[in-house]
Design a protein that fits this description.
Strand content: 15-25%
Helix content: 25-40%
CATH topology: Aminopeptidase
Distance between the termini: 24 Å
Mean pLDDT: 96
CATH class: Alpha Beta
Strand order of the largest sheet: 1-2-3-4-5
Number of domains: 1
Order of helices and strands: EEHHHEEEHEHEEH
Largest sheet: 5 strands, antiparallel
């Protein structure tokens, strides 16, 4: 179910086992996982994440893309679509999300990558709505949601972390109107 996608500056491709080392380096950055973990991931956690994402490619559900910077070939992080199983109150739903390493932030990559993931979801997958979830204090992510056209959201609590989160949605009609 996952395709290789391109933007002007990025390649969004399936993760591969060979991404393990680069992904572990990114996930060792505390700021990458500050929301929601308030800490970095260790190597074992990064490996489990990668294994789960790769295994999900055999599922009918959409999954995450590795984000690769075209100019350098460097793994910048991830974006993509996934089912937010951790938040049963919003199901059925598909969420768009993103995480980028420090060296790749502030360049518009999160917006560029998520915009392409939304296009994939609305056109190739035929979705009628995509949600995005963030902690309200994560202003970088909420600004990306604003740029992507997500409607103001509803607040709830992440049941696994006990923190406040906002769930915002984007309907295909609204997405088409802003293209």
């Amino acid at each position: 179910m996952i395709e290789v996608l391109h933007t002007e500056r990025l390649i969004l491709r399936p993760f591969e086992v060979s991404d393990r080392e680069a992904l572990s380096e990114l996930f060792a950055e505390e700021s990458l996982w500050w929301f929601p973990l308030r800490r970095a991931m260790d190597g074992a956690e990064s490996a489990r994440f990668l294994d789960r994402v790769i295994a999900a490619y055999d599922s009918p559900d959409p999954s995450l893309h590795a984000v690769v910077e075209k100019s350098t070939g460097s793994l910048a992080g991830y974006t993509g679509l996934s089912v937010p199983h951790f938040l049963p109150e919003v199901l059925p739903a598909v969420e768009v999300g993103w995480r980028l390493g420090e060296a790749f932030r502030g360049k518009g990559y999160a917006t560029e990558a998520a915009k392409r993931a939304l296009e994939w979801g609305f056109t190739s997958l035929g979705l009628s709505e995509i949600i995005s979830i963030a902690e309200p204090e994560n202003t970088a992510s909420t600004k990306v949601m604003d740029r992507l056209g997500f409607a103001p959201g509803t607040f709830t609590t992440d049941p696994s972390m006990g923190v406040s989160i906002v769930v915002r949605s984007l309907l295909v009609e609204s997405w088409r109107a802003t293209r």
